[in-house]
Amino acid sequence: MADVPARLKEVAAALARRGQDPGRAWCRAWTAEVDAGLRELHASRRPHTGRLAIVAVGGYGRQELCPASDIDLLLLVDGLDDEAETAAVRDLVYPLWDAALRVGHAVRAPRLAVRAALDDVDIATATLDARLVAGDAELLRGLRSDLLDRLQRRPRRLLGGLAASDAERRARHGDAAETQEPNLKDGAGGLRDVQSLRWAAAALHGDATLDALVTGRELAAADRTRLARAYDLLLSVRVALHLTAGVPTDVLSFDHQPAVADRLGLHRPGVAPADALLHEVFLAARAIDHVHRCAWALVAADARRSGSRHAVARRFQRPVDRRLAGGFVETDGVLRIEPSADLDDPGFPTRLLDALATTDAALDRSGAARIGAWLTGNDGPLPWDDGSRCRLLDVLWRGGAGVHAFAELDDLGLLTALIPEWEPLRGRPQRNPFHRFSLDRHALHSAAKLGDLVREQDWAARQLQAVDDRDGLMLGTLLHDVGKAHGEPHSQTGVPVADAIARRLGAGPATRALVGRLVRWHLLLPEVATRRDLSEPALIADVAATIGDRQTLACLHLLAAADGAATGPSAWSPWKASLVAELVWKVAHVLDDEPTDTLADGAAATARRAEELAPAMGIDPQVVRIHLAMLPPRYAAAVSPRAVVRHAAMADQPLAPAEVRPRVTPGADGEGSLDELDVVAVDRPGLFSKVAGVLAIHGGSVLSAHAFTRNDGVAVDTFRVRRPPTSEAGERPGAWWVSVEGDLVEAVAGRLALRARVARKAAAQRRPSRRLPAVPVRVEVQPDASGDATVVEVHCEDRPGVLHRITAALAELELDIVAAKIDTVGHEVIDAFYVRDVGGAPLDDDHAAEVVLAISSALES
Questions:
Q1: Which of 116, 112, 41 is nearest to 71 (CA)?
Q2: What is the pLDDT of residue 670?
Q3: Nearest-CA neighbor of 588 among 633, 548, 622, 629?
Q4: Strand order from edge to edge, sheet including 334-337
Q5: Is 521 helix (H, G, I), strand (E, B) or coil?
Q6: Contact 842, 789 (CB under 8 A)
Q7: Separation of alpha carbons 236 and 191, rounded Å
């Protein structure tokens, strides 16, 4: 017995050293080794009275034991006393634990095992995969017979539990067919979907196999083959993932994708192995998701109509039909194509799309086969007419309700038959962690978000009123990223592709021109809003000149919101939405030929409002007027009236050379709230860097900042700060800010080893190394739109203290930071700083080169 753990350890290590892994063969080899070890342990056990069966359940029972999977055992006993049962666990399970294996076990009599399975869907599904390893085979035969008999008598009990479990895990783990880090097991289209169908077959037909569903007409034979091929692919990837990660994980994360691809030997000319891997996974998961959806609709129909174990076939006897225009009939969640439907009619594909979106049904097997045969006999793209284009756009405007319909058309091959240019987008990974979806699904989700936005958000509905060409808006949203399949910059390479698609759909010249503008400039608003100083009149004028008219502005605003929402939370947030809205409002004033000096108007309005607020805030209005007179006009245009009053009060009394006066204005309570930090001190190089460093060591994040210096040499800086979650900070927001303010005073006075503390904080927070797509350090220097300052834009990987490093490098060159925009998208930092030299002038070329050198060296060290 002592040799078994050592041998299993040795075998596990040998299997883990395998190069390329075929997946199922690996699982069977490892399963056979565990089986052999258990049989040896069973044979060496001391004699006992009673009966015992060692049963493999779950993945071990299916002989799909992946490298880091649990070894799930059911010890069936009959006539064993407590001491014998304890000895059985000690003799059989403990050696597996000694081999460092993950083992789950239960000891039950057959009758109690059946009862447990009927009460718990997870136990039921594990038991349905039961396989005898050693011992009394009759115990398992009796258990299986009793369980299947009871399940068939009341199939809806298990099927209802499976349906609820499927819905819950799909909602929790997302869609393996489109997410950039798919869950291979529990995501929609993952391994569990196929297993769920097998377990459903046990409840309906008494046989937990896909073949039983083919016999029962819930699954087509061709789909059975598709499922097997896709399942084996995902199983192979899961084995390689476990071998790569060395821990039980089902999420194919970015850091493991290259190694998994190498282990599987996925090498294609011109394609990164990780991209080839994700493409294969996406297409396999889509096949599983589609077949699961269609088959489950029939399974559910059978369950509803099954009054007894012999009533499965009755679904065709008393159908409740819902007839739709265009030759379609929906019955119990299944859509059928009527024999009279003319597939050669150019409008047929989009009528099918409309029917699928309207009913939320799955196309039946015969209809899918009919379309497949029809497509095989067709050469070239399918034709379009005006009705087809209108129906396509109508489904897109329905929002999220239409996404599954497009997925059905994609699976049938109709989408690429209608739009051949769609093929390069299909299942194409986006090597960017802040993107949630593959390229084609991102396009569909963006269009769906646009439809949802204009129905659910008042601002979006108002913007839509300014759009006369709504077809152009929707097509531009759908096609905004098509250039990613043709090289960067995708906003340029996508224009001719989008134009070709719009032309194919029959769009007119004006619509195609709008689509081209939206593709070309879809990044303009979010990039300017998050990286530039919106108080610059020249900048606003440049953006307005680029956009040209109010319709395009409204379209770009809606597209930015839909694109960001479909990308992920790091790409779109209330903060970014507010910045884009501010930019849109200012550009609209210019396009409407209203007074163009928005800086002067905004500053005057802020000054008036600040003087009105001063008495209520306990400040003499004259103090506010004096304060404003010592600052440039862009100060009042950049901060709020209340901030003006606060700053005037903070700077009213003379400052000592090393004195700093911080003040916090809390935002709304809650995790990740944005607060405003005001800092007044005698101006000196490095003040901004010290504030950034103190916030970094306390876990805060700066989102934007404005820095101004009065004529009397007093610095007035304002920072928008996201404090860390309370759970991370370990203290209440008020107490957190007290700590920050205390350290800021010490840092300005030179009594805090700030650089060392930031480095220590960064080391403490360093995450385990992840092989995310590299973000090379890039520093770009250019004049601002007004010519008053120089814009330094920095791209680098996000890590603790990065803002402190950048601003410390700027302080070393004695540069004055007058404004900053801080943007983090996924694991990439994109920061922009408006700087001037010590004389208050923009940088010359030599000085700019030194800035690039200083920042690059600071970030690469």
A1: 41
A2: 45
A3: 548
A4: 321-324, 328-331, 334-337, 362-363
A5: helix
A6: yes
A7: 11
Q: Provide the residue count of the chain.
A: 861
Q: Closest Cα partner for 143 from 77, 60, 84, 79?
A: 77
Q: Is the pLDDT of residue 462 over 80?
A: yes
The token pair at 374 is: 């029809």
Range 14-20, long-range pairs (CB < 8 A, 24+ positions): 15/67, 16/67, 16/243, 18/243, 19/263, 20/263, 20/264, 20/265
Report the C-alpha gap between 400 and 573 in whole angstroms. Answer: 20
Segment 119-134, tens digit of pLDDT: 999 999 999 999 999 9
Classify residue 72 by burial, with Cβ atoms within 10 Å: 0-12, 13-18, 19+: buried
Which stretches does DSSP call E strand in 89-151? Answer: 103-108, 131-135
CA pair distance 204, 580, nearest whole angstrom: 55
Q: Is cis: bond before 489, omega within 30 of 0?
A: yes
**Cβ partners under 8 Å of residue 656, min gap 6:** 682
What is the DSSP code string of 596-664?
S-HHHHHHHHHHHHHHHHTGGGT--HHHHHHHHHTS-HHHHHHS-HHHHHHHHHHTSS---TT-EEEEE
With CA atoms as reference, report the closest residue to 50 among 16, 76, 26.
76
Assess contact for 211 and 225: CB atoms under 8 A: no
For the sheet with 51-56, list strands across it.
103-108, 71-78, 51-56, 131-135
pLDDT given for residue 671 in this prediction: 40
Distances (CA, A) of 457 to 190, 453, 461, 473, 562: 34, 5, 6, 17, 12
Neighbouring C-beta atoms of residue 81, cutoff 10 Å: 12
- What token pair was written down for 709? 């210096």
In one letter, which amino acid is 805? Answer: R
| Residue matched to tokens 């090597």 | 431
Sorted by sequence, the CB contacts under 8 Å of residue 620 that are 6+ apart come out as 614
Which strands sit side by side in the sheet containing 674-682, from one edge to the other? 660-665, 674-682, 714-722, 701-709, 816-825, 828-836, 790-797, 778-783
Burial tier of 768 (Cβ tally within 10 Å: 0-12, 13-18, 19+): exposed
Of the candidates 397, 443, 388, the one whose C-alpha atom is nearest the C-alpha of residue 417 is 388
Query: Can you tell me whether residue 71 is helix, strand or coil?
Result: strand
Strands 334-337 and 362-363 come out as: parallel
pLDDT, tens digit (0-9, with 9 covering 90-100), for 470-507: 999 999 999 999 999 998 999 999 999 999 999 999 99
Greater model confidence, 661 or 601: 661
* Closest among 442, 618, 599 to 533, alpha carbons compared: 599
Distance (Å, whole) CA 92 – CA 47:
14
Number of H helices, E strands in the chain: 38, 16
